[in-house]
Amino acid sequence: MFTSSKRRRTVFEDEQSLSTANLSEPIGREQELDQIADAVRPLSRGQEADNLLVHGPAGTGKSTCINHVLDKLDEETRVRTVSINYWKYNTRPSLLTQLLIELDYPAPRKGKPIDELLTALKERVDKGRSVAVALDEFDQLAEQNEVLYDLHELNVQTESCCGMVLASNKAPSDIELEQRTRSRLGYQTLEFDIYGKDDLEEILRNRAVEAFRRNTLGDGVIGRVATAVADEIEVGQGDCRHALEVLHRAGREADKENADKVTVAHVERAMNAARFGE
Ligand SMILES: Nc1ncnc2c1ncn2[C@@H]1O[C@H](COP(=O)(O)OP(=O)(O)O)[C@@H](O)[C@H]1O
Ligand SMILES: [Mg+2]
């Protein structure tokens, strides 16, 4: 069944580059990238960062952009960067433990009391290099005020600076931070707007260059996906992730038929399949 010698045609060059599991290079979003970079840049001079709360609906590229800026900061400066996702570490002790692990603390045991975790963190951060911490899916975290306070204290009580980039799907007004926390942190906000048809087209086109073999994308394929998903986004459904999935599935539909090009009909089929699956 799977070992037939008949060579099957495929439209894909590198299917993996349509995957939404790995964060890829951001396409567009130059202004947002600049603003995130501006917020963390002082760390590279050993000065305090502007804490930043990045917010906007899911799939608008927040994580992609934050990770990209932090990767560059890591590559190009002495600043240490740590990125933690709250879906995985959504309590104060688990987050602080993970932060220690990311800062190369030798194997902290689970279940250490908070004050021991904080002391260990202070020791790590005091080693002289500033740290940029990205807290992704921040709205998922329990004890938000406490964690922000913990990180703020690292800034105050150590020689080094600790800058925070928070990402949230909720608007700042819907995140219930205490007034105390807000004023102490003095964070700035950056909103990621939803993508329109043109934005999606640009992203899909860029990703398609690596994903598909030359001349395998029929006329109007990317436009069709971008239009359909932009319409969904307008009514509060779908996002960029979904657009990439539809294009990916359309390619698979073409492969199923052994076709040499992906067509708009494959896109339609991919979208119908998605609807049934939802
Ligand atoms: N500007 C962009 N350039 C390239 N890919 C993007 C862009 N925006 C979103 N994506 C893709 O869409 C998916 C969702 O983006 P993500 O950054 O996780 O959004 P958010 O964090 O806002 O929910 C990612 O897998 C990424 O591949
Ligand atoms: Mg995200």
Automatic annotation (TrEMBL):
Q: Which Gene3D superfamilies match?
A: 1.10.8.60, P-loop containing nucleotide triphosphate hydrolases
Gene Ontology biological process: DNA replication
Q: What does the UniProt keyword field contain?
A: ATP-binding, DNA replication, Nucleotide-binding
Instruction: Tell me a Gene Ontology molecular-function term this record carries.
Output: ATP binding
Question: Ranges for the AAA+ ATPase domain?
Answer: 48-191
Q: Which InterPro entries match?
A: AAA+_ATPase (IPR003593), AAA_16 (IPR041664), Cdc6_lid (IPR055237), ORC1/CDC6 (IPR050311), P-loop_NTPase (IPR027417)
- UniProt KW Transport keyword: no
Q: Which Pfam families match?
A: AAA_16, Cdc6_lid
Domain of life, source organism = Archaea
Quote the PANTHER family the UniProt record gives. CELL DIVISION CONTROL PROTEIN 6 HOMOLOG, CELL DIVISION CONTROL PROTEIN 6-RELATED
Protein name in the entry:
Cdc6/Cdc18 family protein
Task: Provide the organism lineage as a comma list.
Answer: Archaea, Methanobacteriati, Methanobacteriota, Stenosarchaea group, Halobacteria
